[in-house]
Amino acid sequence: MKILEGLRELGKTMTIVSPHISVNLNQHYSTCILDPNLALSPYGLPVTKNLSKFLELWIAREFWRIIDNTNYYQQYPESLQLKTAVLKKNPEELIQTLKNWQSLRIATVPTNLNLFWIGDNKSESFLPSNADPQLIYHWESLAYSLDHQLEQHSVTQTTITSAFRDTVALAATLKSAFILTYQSPTKQNKNLSPDICTALESWGISCQQIDSNDSIAAIERENLLHLIIQAGLSKFLWAGLNLVVLHLVVPSASKIQQNQSSNIQSDIEESSLSPNLWEGARGFWYQLKN
User: Fold this and answer.
1) For the CA atoms of the chain, what is the radius of gyration?
2) Where are the beta strands (DSSP E) in the chain?
3) Among 96, 107, 147, 183, which is disulfide-ready with 188 (CB 3.0 to 4.6 Å)?
4) Where are the domains of the chain?
5) DSSP run (H or E) holding 277
6) Distance CA 85, CA 106 (A)
7) CB 230 within 8 A of CB 54
8) Which three-class secondary structure state does DSSP give residue 245?
9) What single string gives the DSSP state of each residue in 133-187?
10) For residue range 183-214, what is the model confidence (pLDDT) as tens digits?
11) Which residue, 182, 6, 156, 172, is CA-closest to 83?
């Protein structure tokens, strides 16, 4: 009985199946970061609402700045996509999506939305209760360092580039998180990488497509597809939503915690001058549905 009580205290469940005993431990939700490009697609809201019940969902800071300036982007929707985009977004669809997100944000408290983000400061952030106290500092250090990486590659920062930058820095900060993005039908037919991967390549960060027969991707794909089915999103896959999973490896990200001093602001400014945090960074992506 003491063992059972201990398991309950740890938030674990025990299922007894006669004549054997099996213990099923509740797993922590996987951490998923929504690519702003996916969030701003016609599928963005239903994907967010449904998946938030099964995954720990995060969104980039720049995304909320976009939603807060919906009136501006209604006039200049072209600024919400890469200039090199193969297929231009439908302005009417994009404007409607912006309005829907704006309405949702006004009408829904963050705890009901189940969507986390890092804001300009702690009071403007919405973080899980068990979040690392230094999470915002780690993200800012990686984001500033990534700015330097962009400057090195003469990248002109646009709204969508800034959103990608925030997303990529967030993925490196959360470490075990993956980015959920998508390919347009045109890109899928031409076997071209998603826009966020195109951006990464232009920043000097290689993005490799994982072979469709890769055994590790196969296991991960199966697990995620089960969540997609449970979330009631199968119909969107049949309708042409080509979801893509992107993983980032940023070996130098651990240097932030090791080198952290008592002067956090000084550390952030110092990291912004060093390109080393993104040295050796790589991306790996695969299509969720073969």
Assistant:
1) 20
2) 13-17, 20-24, 31-34, 56-59, 115-116, 178-183, 206-209, 242-249, 282-287
3) 183
4) 28-287
5) none
6) 31
7) yes
8) strand
9) TTHHHHHHHHHHHHHHHHHHTTPPP-HHHHHHHHHHHHHHHHSS-EEEEEE-HHH
10) 988 888 888 999 999 999 999 999 999 998 99
11) 156
